[in-house]
Amino acid sequence: MKSIPCATQPTPEKSENLRWGRKVLVLIIIITSIYWAWLKISNPNTFPVRTVKIIGVTNHVNHRLLRNTITAHLSRGMLWLNVEDLEDAVNQLPWIESAALTRKWPDEIFIRITEQTPIAHWNNKQLLNNQGSVFTPDGSSTISNLPSLYGPNNLQNTVWEGYQVMNSILSTIGLKIISASMTSRQVWDVYLNNGIHLILGREDVVKRLKKFVLVYPKIAGQANNIQYVDLRYSDGFAVKWKNNPAKN
């Protein structure tokens, strides 16, 4: 009579090895999946930026410079885009007062731009904006019909305020200031739209200007012949003529 062989039962040691083998295999699969996923999402082509929308008026902003600045930050794709770095880069451009960036998934970026609003030329090479801050244009735009102001770089608001007060006084006789300068000692000189140069000095500037306004109608007919009016005298003023009227 033949005996029937019995199935060999795994020893406890072999069972433990099998369990560890399965765990290692699962761990390898998990690590491989994570690594593959990381490679996938770290690839900028996985979540590319397809659309950039500029919101706001950009009459003076250099569009080519703006486009190149933005493009330089898009190579990392939507996921790895550093929003703060791109905002800072755009905010550094000429004519940009402020820029704010938002992402809209899966592939859009919105950049809201506020352009500088110039109110005056400042010390020839710069401009003064409506917030009282000085900024440097890029030279691509020519801004006309703005007054030219001159003064110490930390006193632009004082110069602007003085210009406004004096311009308001002169407007009562149909004149306006095209250029005004104030030294560090607050000595004022202004040039009017009719070519007259007013020397106002430092003291009682508004009072002296009002004195000129009262007298101007008497000399308005000779305005083209006036080189400057010196208003620093306490009891009157002096007129420098281009050609002496007494000889005409």
Protein topology:
Blueprint: H1 12-42, E1 51-55, H2 63-71, H3 77-80, H4 83-91, E2 96-104, E3 108-115, E4 118-122, E5 126-129, E6 134-135, E7 148-150, H5 156-170, E8 177-182, E9 188-192, E10 197-201, H6 205-219, E11 226-230, E12 238-241
Parallel strand pairs: 1-3, 4-7, 7-8, 10-11
Antiparallel strand pairs: 2-3, 4-5, 5-6, 8-9, 9-10, 11-12
Your description of this structure?
The protein has two domains: 51-115, membrane protein fhac (Ubiquitin-like (UB roll)), CATH 3.10.20.310; 119-247, Rossmann fold (3-Layer(aba) Sandwich), CATH 3.40.50.11690. 33% of the residues lie in helices and 25% in strands. It contains six helices and twelve strands. The protein has helices at residues 12-42, 63-71, 77-80, 83-91, 156-170, 205-219; strands at residues 51-55, 96-104, 108-115, 118-122, 126-129, 134-135, 148-150, 177-182, 188-192, 197-201, 226-230, 238-241. The chain has a nine-stranded mixed β-sheet, covered by helices on one side. A three-stranded mixed β-sheet has the order 1-3-2, covered by helices on one side. Helix 5 (156-170) runs parallel beside helix 6. The longest helix is centred in the first third of the chain and has 31 residues, at 12-42. The protein starts with 11 loop residues before the first helix and ends in a 7-residue tail after the last strand. The relative contact order is 0.07. The mean pLDDT is 86.
